[in-house]
């Protein structure tokens, strides 16, 4: 299991590099009640290694396996990815040295997906994407776009992804974000893979299709239906003719 992964982080000057601390992550342990009763539970913070800072996404495959991701700490050789194999009671930080030596220092992971016990995808700024097929012990880069990544252009920020199997998934975000002009329109970014991320098909709508140019922030799949959402009241579902944006989702009402 992942418990066999050695910890490669050097000790800090105060000898506390591997001291476990409580920051920025909580998991709900729900007490399942009979169907006639409401579910109740308590949120409480979990101990994490000191190297772990900001975390932006988490994906639990089941009650045992899960992964979370965020900001790497290159000074402490932390990749920004942590994994649990015991339902969140403990978290294993993945060292940078498990990634290729080309892992850029501008890497920030904003999305993670764990479609089975061995497979993990992480993605984020500058369209960076990496995949592991051995529970995080080794990683390979996946090219999500042919545009040149990295500052200053920073093409495409991947905000979320969802894989329904190790081979198939969608990633969403926004395109053409620049550090010099952060307030300009950020056209929606949608890519799809069916071959374990070896190739991605760009399904982003044409610039003229979605006039408001919304950044896309979340994507999910259930019972054969793909759906996404984002800025400017954007909700879209996948049809045989492509992604169909709902005209005005806020105009509908629920009947009680």
List the helices and strands and how they pair.
Blueprint: E1 20-31, E2 40-49, E3 55-60, E4 66-70, E5 78-84, E6 92-95, E7 109-113, E8 120-124, E9 129-132, E10 140-141, E11 157-163, E12 169-174, E13 188-193, E14 201-202, E15 216-222, E16 225-230, E17 234-239, E18 242-245
Antiparallel strand pairs: 1-2, 3-4, 4-5, 5-6, 7-8, 8-9, 9-10, 11-12, 12-13, 13-14, 15-16, 16-17, 17-18
Write out key terms for the chains shown.
mainly beta; 4-stranded antiparallel sheet; 18 strands; 256 residues
Please characterize this protein's 3D structure:
This protein has 256 residues and is mainly β. 0% of the residues lie in helices and 41% in strands. It has strands at residues 20-31, 40-49, 55-60, 66-70, 78-84, 92-95, 109-113, 120-124, 129-132, 140-141, 157-163, 169-174, 188-193, 201-202, 216-222, 225-230, 234-239, 242-245. The strands form 5 sheets. It has a 4-stranded antiparallel beta sheet, with no helix packed on it. The protein has a 4-stranded antiparallel beta sheet with strand order 7-8-9-10, with no helix packed on it. β7 (109-113) and β8 (120-124) form a beta hairpin. It is globular, with a radius of gyration of 19 Å.
